[in-house]
Amino acid sequence: MKLASSRDRAPGRPVSRQVLADHVYEELLAWLMDGRLEPGAAVSIDGTARELDVSPTPVREALARLEHTGMVRRVALKGYRVAPVFTREDFAELMEARLAIEPVNARLACSRITPEDLAALREAVKDLETAPRGPSFVEFRDYLEADERFHKLIAEQSGNQFMLAAYSALGGQVQRFRLFGGVGITDADQAIAEHQAVLDALASGDPEQAAAAMADHVHKVRARAIADAPAD
Amino acid sequence: MKLASSRDRAPGRPVSRQVLADHVYEELLAWLMDGRLEPGAAVSIDGTARELDVSPTPVREALARLEHTGMVRRVALKGYRVAPVFTREDFAELMEARLAIEPVNARLACSRITPEDLAALREAVKDLETAPRGPSFVEFRDYLEADERFHKLIAEQSGNQFMLAAYSALGGQVQRFRLFGGVGITDADQAIAEHQAVLDALASGDPEQAAAAMADHVHKVRARAIADAPAD
DNA sequence: AAGGGACCATTCCTATAGGATTTGTCTATG
DNA sequence: CATAGACAAATCCTATAGGAATGGTCCCTT
Asked: Which sequence spans correspond to the domains of chain B?
């Protein structure tokens, strides 16, 4: 694979304003998000550099940023690895954290949400409905993307940069769990109904109702996952 | 300044297991925490490398990690800058986020806290009492360090890696605000009493009481800051 | 056959070099 | 005097080279 370098850019065009490390970061993030990089797999610096046809320097920078998201972990002198699979306890912790953060986001977003924001949320829910739910990940990739988009939009619309930062610290892990938590997409209809309920509460303008709807959604996600999860 | 390189290490001694980028990260973090780097100041990659007597490569890696904490911000092709000073709105947002996260940490920590943890918390409160509170930052630096230590200990003892991650996403900012929020250390006695109340609640073993004590503390910090803050 | 040590390939880590971009200054011109 | 353009210095960004550590393999010894 060949990434566009800042050198071989048409001279007249507006400057890209994005350096190679940014491209590498986004590329690696995509690999992590859509499951191309499985938990526990080694992410070689030199290897990734060869794969992306860049030097190791920007790869190091991208991985250093990714480490802080918890998606990859570094061991000094040994390199980076994709974070290991979720245990049942990890999942419980993640849901607890989501319960602490996401209802607050919904409550904050409720009082400052704009019609454009509501439209974007409606589109996310609609994408959830229309997305395929096949067994292989390429088939429900769009479903996961819409789910993540819905929750992230609410975090952004909280208007609180720190709540967004807190959610982002979880967001990647949430997405990773959706992929490898063993749940699959067996609960799409119920999940869509819950998303719709959150959306309706936000549209109604009642902050506490929005928070309650979000808390209810996370609670039910947890309950379904516990019911579905394979014994370990 | 000269950092110890992995090359000039005594051959017989146990391996350091820490690379230069880690040293640089910790050094820069210390500079940010104790105010040596003021908000808005440029953090030159090459300059920092010369200052620390290392090559720019590990400095780039350290700054890439720091960027994700919100302490520094990067503009492509222009470099890194220390995040700008807090506005009154930033402060309100930060307190809102702390209210969402820290009481939950206290509640979770309460039911799994060990005698050793309690001892460490008592020591932090004791350090708060004995630390000098002079006007210049070198004089109340230890006070701030003990404050941060207290809150971080509770986040760690929540036993929830994601709540800790969420707090850490805030932690640096909390520390930065303490330095540049204009509050100074005018409320040490009251703050110490509140910390003691949190500690007592944790020791009592009542989770809801611990959460309430922490929420009360954050509320009062906010109230005092708003009362003291200079008009902007 | 099992365990230990030497060797080699791979990978990480740091330094260095040079191209590309930005920024500050200085001069010339309207 | 203000403004535009050119030059120079500083800085960022990427690639490359080589030292250092790790992991695996092979061979030897017990």
From this structure: 20-82, 88-228
